[in-house]
Amino acid sequence: MSSMRTVRMALVRSKNLPLHANVDCSYNLSPDKLCTKISLCDALVVRSRRKVTKDLFELSGQRLKVVERAGVGIDNVDLAAVTKHGCLVVNTPTANTVAAVEHEIALLAAMARNIAQADASVKAGKWQGNKYVRVSLVGKTLVMMDFGKVGSEVAQRAKGLGMHVIAHDPYAPTDRARTIGVDLVSFDEAILKLILSLCTLSTFR
Q: Is residue 87 situated within a structural domain?
């Protein structure tokens, strides 16, 4: 352990880091407290609420070399100060992808099955099975207005549920869409299909 490179971090969640560095796990630090610790830090791991400011870099005394944003965006990091102090900024752009995708699929299924409404009805002491018509996702068309990292993963899972998926995204890679089995369409085509789907569902109910 004595040969281990000293790295103190003001905020960290990984359980593997202590195997490679000396780690200071400090949660919910006030800005003042963080400022007193930063001069001992070689690296800093933060979430979205923590602002990594110009003052913080200056107080680090040029010791801070890496700032990791444990999440997607880096808008809470002063990039001008990062550049000035020669600090490296990294993030984890796919960290929340699976969670977001599964949440979207869960909401889609809940909407099709009226789960929230039925749950509220049961909790109110009622049993209204005939009131909340359930719709199967199999054979239905999912219209997507995005086919990026999250969108393509949602499409892949929707296909696994037996849905037909079309998407509008002028920047979407056609080979990725073709591999998953998604039809890329124009904006007007997507909106028209969406309107028709809503009308059909409304009529069915």
A: yes
At residue 165, the 3 state secondary structure works out as strand
**Beta-strand pair 141-144/88-91:** unpaired
Number of domains in the chain: 2
In the prediction, which pLDDT does 16 show? 65
Ramachandran sector of residue 72 (left: φ over 0; alpha: ψ -120 to 50; beta: rest): alpha
| 106 and 183 part of one domain | yes
- 101 vs 153: CA distance, rounded Å: 6
Burial class (CB in 10 A: 0-12, 13-18, 19+), 156: middle
Could you tell me if 103 and 192 lie in one domain? Answer: yes
Tokens of 112: 């099709």
Asked, for residue 189, whether it belongs to a domain, the answer is yes
- Summarize pLDDT for 103-133 with one digit per residue, the tens: 999 999 999 888 998 899 999 998 887 787 7
Range of the domain at 199: 97-204
Whether residue 155 contacts residue 169, with contact meaning beta carbons closer than 8 Å, is answered with: no
Written as one string, the DSSP assignment of 47-102 is: -SS--B-HHHHHHTTT---EEEESSS--TTB-HHHHHHHT-EEEE-TTTTHHHHHH
pLDDT in tens, 31-55: 788 888 888 888 888 888 888 888 8
In this predicted model, what pLDDT tens digit does every residue of 63-76 receive, in sequence order?
Answer: 888 888 888 888 88
